[in-house]
Write a structure and sequence with these properties.
The chain is an alpha/beta fold. It has a single domain, classed as Alpha-Beta Complex (Spore Coat Polysaccharide Biosynthesis Protein SpsA, Chain A). Helices cover 34% and strands 21% of the residues. The strands form three sheets. The protein has a five-stranded mixed sheet, sandwiched between helices. A hairpin with a 5-residue loop joins strand 8 and strand 9 (159-163).
């Protein structure tokens, strides 16, 4: 049976590390517009929506005839913003969605292939409630960067832990590490449940949402991708991403 799948892009101007980053331009267009347009071409998606609490982002997406909803300013987690947004969209569209893919508004290197990869396990196995992409870290600097969220997983590709610290530890010269790529599909009802449970100690300590699920003994299916991607957390990240995208890599 065909499932209704929506991608929601949570975005806000007030990032503590880089104010206004969703509106920073890459190849002449704001980053949030770039992500929206890429997702709009993904065949598997029924709808793409930007969820924001800022008029500047709201007005820009409206100006390109995009789908956007205004959410509360009080949200501290992207998943909370998505949970509010999906309720607004479903009420407006009079349509229920089966799967919600959260694509962070600072992931300008997202591709259709990445979206398809993230959703495939859930389409093949209804017991999977949530999945997450990951990719190998290819340099030591990123491995030790606190803005780069590392993940370790078991032999069944279920997450064991997410950390901003370098994990796993290795006393060898060659390090082995994977980083989270913030493209996260939730089953619709599971997203509601997730946002009703209280934030947990490790989630707050690491400032990584996914640890809330690990602490509640919920499996997170990890999917490896070969493509190395970089989110934009700082101005330095933006320069790197611009250079990579310009080179066509």
């Amino acid at each position: 049976m065909k499932q209704n799948i929506i991608a929601i892009i949570p975005a806000r101007m007030g990032s503590s590390r880089f104010y206004g980053k969703p509106m920073q331009k890459i190849n002449g267009i704001p980053m949030i517009e770039r992500i929206y347009k890429i997702l709009s071409k993904v065949n598997i998606l029924k709808m793409v929506v930007v969820a924001t609490c800022d008029k500047e982002i709201f007005n820009h997406i409206k100006g390109i005839d995009g789908n956007v909803v205004m959410t509360k300013k009080s949200h501290t987690r992207a998943s909370d913003r998505c949970a509010e947004a999906i309720k607004i969209v479903e009420k407006t569209e009079k349509l229920f969605f089966d799967i919600v893919i959260m694509v962070q508004g600072d992931e300008p290197m997202v591709t259709e292939s990445m979206i398809n990869s993230s959703i495939k396990p859930m389409l093949n196995d209804r017991s999977i409630q949530i999945s997450n992409l990951c990719t190998r870290i290819k340099n030591k600097k990123d491995f030790y960067d606190k803005n780069c969220v590392k993940v370790i997983f078991n032999k069944n590709m279920n997450a064991i832990y997410f950390s901003r610290s370098p994990i796993p530890f290795s006393n060898k010269k060659k390090f082995i590490g994977f980083k989270q790529v913030c493209i996260i599909p939730f089953r619709r009802k599971f997203l509601d449940w997730y946002n009703k449970i209280s934030p947990t100690f490790l989630e707050k300590t690491e400032s990584v949402d996914m640890n809330r699920l690990i602490e509640n003994d919920i499996k997170i299916k990890m999917i490896k991708i070969k493509k190395e991607t970089f989110p934009v957390d700082t101005i330095k990240d933006l320069r790197r991403v611009k250079k990579i995208i310009k080179s066509g890599l």
